[in-house]
Amino acid sequence: MSQPILQMLGINKSFSGVRVLRDVDFDLQEGEVHAVVGENGAGKSTLMKIAAGIHHRDSGQIIWKGEPVEITSPHESLRLGISMVHQELTLAQHLSVAENLYLGREPLRQKQLGIIHRGSLFQRATELLAENHFGIDPRATVLRLPIAQRQLVEIARALAADSEVIIMDEPTSSLSAREAGEFFRVVRRLKAKGVSIIYISHRLEELHEVADRITILRDGQKVITAPFASMKMTEIIRHMVGRELSAMFPEKEAQVGSAGVPPASNLGEEILRVENLSRAGVLHDISFSLRAGEILGVAGLVGAGRTELARALFGLDRIDSGKVIVFGREVQPTSPSRAIATGMAYLTEDRKVTGLALGLDISANVTLANLKRLVSFGRINLREERKVGRQYVARLRIVTPSVRQKVLRLSGGNQQKVAIAKWLFAQSNVIVFDEPTRGIDIAAKRDVFDLFVELTRMGAGILMISSELPEILGMSDRILVMRRGMIVGELDPRRTDQEEILRLAALGAERAA
Predict the structure, then answer these.
(1) How many domains does the chain have?
(2) Residue 412 and residue 323 share a domain
(3) Long-range contacts for 316-319 (Cβ within 8 Å, ≥24 apart)?
(4) Is the pLDDT of residue 127 over 60?
(5) How far apart are CA 240 and CA 230, in angstroms?
(6) 474 in any annotated domain
(7) Is the pTM of the predicted complex or chain greater than 0.70?
(8) Range of the domain at 416
(9) 407 inside domain
(10) Is residue 350 part of a domain?
(11) Distance CA 336, CA 248 (A)
């Protein structure tokens, strides 16, 4: 091989006395896509944030184009030619797409006065977005974009910087299959131009689309670096988790009927019924039911209305007409507090903005939706709160030095586990999970799926919204497919496949037929 464009040698890093990187070596060749994988807490993001100047290494060496360098800030990293697309979005949400793409590098009409040439700004943004097939209005305010489009803006911002090395941390985590396909084409075009890409992803199945080499980290140490084509998926997983991983999806009792059809007796009473739910321009005549012990999968492309349905059921968005019936009683979903009181829970797709109190510790977040269990004479029992926190840290394998650790300081995947723990502690019976495994590694996904099965055995019903079609097929008892705010099909997961789901999601019931 030629001289690497970037080398990291003997990198060590600790936080609050906890060692998160141990003598890690890493190198990146010019024009290659180097995948970095590992479980949550393995050190992937920390290693790359050191390269991006966000964290400072405790010891070790960084070599850029053959010369030792000190990367002390993101500005220094950008100056060298390294940019990072973060898993958690870092956009200025009150600004337009174009303003975000060129923030700090705006074209100026009068340089001395610092007056921005807005016509040139929007023209550049329009050309960049069109070149990379990102169908986004450059004048749109980022706050009003769905999360998938915000992710695309984050990626486009890195492309706008003309960096020689782009670090991509879970870049497709919020993208539909179609958008991810477009994104892989962008990655291949960048590679052809000589751009080097570090690609962090929990979606192991997508790595064959782009990866040249793979480095696997476990418990803060490098396990192996090898050509991606030389490794089988089972071998990658074994290196990641340090053991053989059994089947990805657990067996459900409701899936043992004759001819592969779950017997109705294995499901309980109807706990949720939605009749003709509508919201002008968003949801159209939605009707379905959910039974105790059932996992009802909801599939669809980005913009199909899946999240909007979840928000309406939980009282976050108004509804114009229709009925929501929980345990046989019609309810008015006018607020989250009323929804919680009826036994509903909602794990949102955007954990940082709407799922967690980032400034509070783990225990406080876990108990947040059910504080009444810990209150006596108007005071919270903090000892009991910490006890509950420790129970869920162990149960969900949350990687943290203490339950008193602020959630802000956890990795993205461990933050997601805390968000799930909050609703487990609330003991809700009708649970809406919106992208429940987003940002979670393959071993932790199995833990989450086991919890789903445990919840259904306890009588809960789960409405699972997911862009991951394998988990929709592997976990659901029934599948609803949405398109343009409507339910266009109901499928039996044992008698369908990804192709049929995508066909319905893209074309609707009539054209798919």
Answers:
(1) 3
(2) no
(3) 316/346, 317/279, 317/282, 318/279, 319/277, 319/278, 319/279, 319/283
(4) yes
(5) 16
(6) yes
(7) no
(8) 356-425
(9) yes
(10) no
(11) 33
